[in-house]
Amino acid sequence: MEPSVIHLGLAGLGTVGSGLVRIIEENGDWIARRLGRRLQVKAILVRDMDKPRPITPSPSTHLTTNPADLYTDPDIDIVVELTGGIDFPRRLITEALQHGKSVVTANKALLAEHGPELFELAASRGLGLYYEASVAGGIPVIQTLKESLAGNRIKDITGILNGTANFILSEMTQHGEDFATALAKAQEKGYAEADPTLDVDGWDAAHKLVILIRLATGQDVPLPALVVQGIRNVTAQDIALAREFGYRVKLVAQMRDKSGRIQAGVYPALLPEDHILAKVDGPFNAILLEGNAVGPIMLYGQGAGDLPTGSAVLADILALARSGSCPNNTGFLETRLPQAQILAPELTVFRHYFRFTVVDKPGVVAAIAGVMGESNISIAQMVQRGANADSSVPIVFFTHSAQMRDVERALSTIAAFSFVVAKPVHYRILA
Ligand code: NAP
Ligand code: HSE
Question: Ligand 2 pocket test: which of 16, 83, 142, 164 has the largest number of ligand atoms within 8 Å of its C-beta?
Answer without folding.
Answer: 164
